[in-house]
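REQUEST ID: PR-0412
SUBMITTED BY: lab tech R.K.
PRIORITY: routine
TASK: structure prediction, single protein chain
INPUT:
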Amino acid sequence: MEISQDFETAARLTATNLVVPRGLLVVETDTGFAKLGDGATRWTALGYWQPAPAAVVTPEVVDPESVTLAEDLLAALVALGLVAES
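STATUS: complete
OUTPUT:
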């Protein structure tokens, strides 16, 4: 599944209440919340997107120098345009 993105205000998205195409991540520009389309469900029936929580890694289990999860997550958010490059 390829994920693309779109941006619009919450009021406009609610008023149009369109079916969000599968894989389209739509971000409300005024709230910052997002919904991920499934290709069958209208906007108001979709739940807000909540990414899965990251696993907790402790130094006793994994060498903290080798953990790149935060870097990978940041790179993904930058690629999606959800955060600016630092």
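NOTES: Residues 1-50 form one domain.
REVIEWED BY: pending
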